[in-house]
Amino acid sequence: MGSNPLFLFNDMDYARSQKAAEAVLAPVIEQMGYELVDVKLLSEAGRLVLRVMADREGGITLDDLTRISREVGPHLEVADPIAARYSLEVSSPGIKRPLKKPADFIRFAGQVTAVKTKDPINGRKRFKGIGRGLDEEGRLALELTDLKETVHIDLDLIDEAKLDPEITF
């Protein structure tokens, strides 16, 4: 897929290509009855990887992921949103599911959430607590487990947010 070498990519190219790939993928995956959770374009071990996370209510199977991969591959070939060789990986979001959209924070309210912000809030950039959805101003309300207080985080300040369930054996 693509034909140019990896070394020509810079941060702007990654961001632009990732957005272009997402624009191609979203309608195809949604039309198939799945949810596009996340798209990431990254360099791993000297190769470019387009990582696509998809899900559906009730969970996603390996057969679903194979079907998605087969369907989106030709769309990416035709649109050619990435001007370099890359590998396509389609996966489930797993138990540490990324939270990207406002609806995600509402849908997964009540679950343990880990958040990393772009800039410090009260001197820190990493937070973990129970997501309480969005407040009246559209900010994430996160009940911190370490301080027993709730912090309100503007969604545009979030660098990364994901579910962070406690696993016990």
Molecular structure report:
- Helices cover 27% and strands 36% of the residues.
- With 169 residues, it is α+β, with helices and mostly antiparallel strands.
- Strands 7-6-5-4-8 form a five-stranded antiparallel β-sheet. Strands 1-2-3 form a three-stranded mixed β-sheet.
- Strand 2 (47-55), helix 2 and strand 3 (87-91) form a beta-alpha-beta unit.
- The longest helix is centred in the first third of the chain and has 21 residues, at 11-31.
- The radius of gyration is 18 Å and the shape is globular.
- Mean pLDDT is 91; it is low at 2-7.
Strands of the largest sheet, in order across it? 7-6-5-4-8
Any idea what the CATH architecture of the largest domain is? 2-Layer Sandwich
User: Which structural class fits the helix and strand makeup?
Assistant: alpha+beta
| Series of H and E elements | HEEHEHEEEEE
Number of strands: 8
Helix proportion of residues, in percent? 25-40%
Number of domains: 2
Radius of gyration: 18 Å
Fourth CATH level, the homologous superfamily of the largest domain:
RimP-like superfamily, N-terminal
**Which residues form runs of ≥5 with pLDDT under 50?**
2-7
Terminal CA distance reads 42 Å
Shape: globular
- Chain-averaged pLDDT: 91
Strand fraction equals 35-45%
CATH overall fold name of the largest domain: GMP Synthetase, Chain A, domain 3
Largest sheet: 5 strands, antiparallel
Q: Layout of SSEs?
A:
Blueprint: H1 11-31, E1 35-44, E2 47-55, H2 62-79, E3 87-91, H3 102-107, E4 112-121, E5 124-134, E6 140-144, E7 150-153, E8 158-163
Parallel strand pairs: 2-3
Antiparallel strand pairs: 1-2, 4-5, 4-8, 5-6, 6-7
Helix pairs in contact: 1-2
